[in-house]
Design a protein that fits this description.
By secondary structure, the protein is mainly alpha-helical. It has a single domain (13-140), classed as Multidrug-efflux Transporter Regulator, Chain: A, Domain 2 (Orthogonal Bundle). It has six helices and three strands. Helix 3 packs across helix 4. The chain is globular and about 50 Å long.
Length: 141
């Protein structure tokens, strides 16, 4: 990303004001992007207050990079983001790596630091192992 943005704190939910500061955009831009990018769906609570999760902050940073730094149009950025997400699900080696790098960087510090996964395959292996443990635990109960 061209612009140096602040690191993302290790917390579960972020308000629209916090996300605006973390991503270097105004809150009204975030609300507009929600309409344009269907993948962006913050949780809404009382009074339609938006609460963004960590992965949504990363996605907003990716959208910002595509629009402001790489010069994509809204529809071009939408298509590129869709393509990246599709590739990340189908072919972990290509498009997933930049997303993993951002996630590693953001989660590497703080009390909630997560283990770094080298590839999506590593993460899938851990997920599979956890599912197997869950089955074993449910059988024993």
């Amino acid at each position: 990303m061209g612009t140096l943005l602040p690191s993302i704190p290790a917390k579960r939910y972020f308000t629209i004001g916090e996300v605006a500061e973390l991503c270097g955009v105004k809150p009204h831009v975030l609300r507009y992007w929600e309409q344009e990018f269907t993948q962006l769906r913050p949780m809404k609570r009382r009074g339609n207050r938006r609460y963004y999760q960590h992965h949504e902050v990363l996605m907003i940073r990716r959208i910002r990079d595509l629009l402001y730094d790489q010069g994509f149009t809204i529809s071009g950025a939408r298509n590129k983001l869709q393509e990246m997400l599709h590739q990340a699900r189908g072919n972990p080696g290509d498009a997933a790596e930049p997303l993993l790098d951002e996630g590693r960087e953001a989660l590497a510090t703080g009390p909630l630091a997560a283990p770094a996964f080298e590839t999506m395959a590593d993460m899938d292996a851990v997920r599979q192992e956890l599912l197997e443990i869950r089955v074993l635990l449910s059988e024993g109960a």
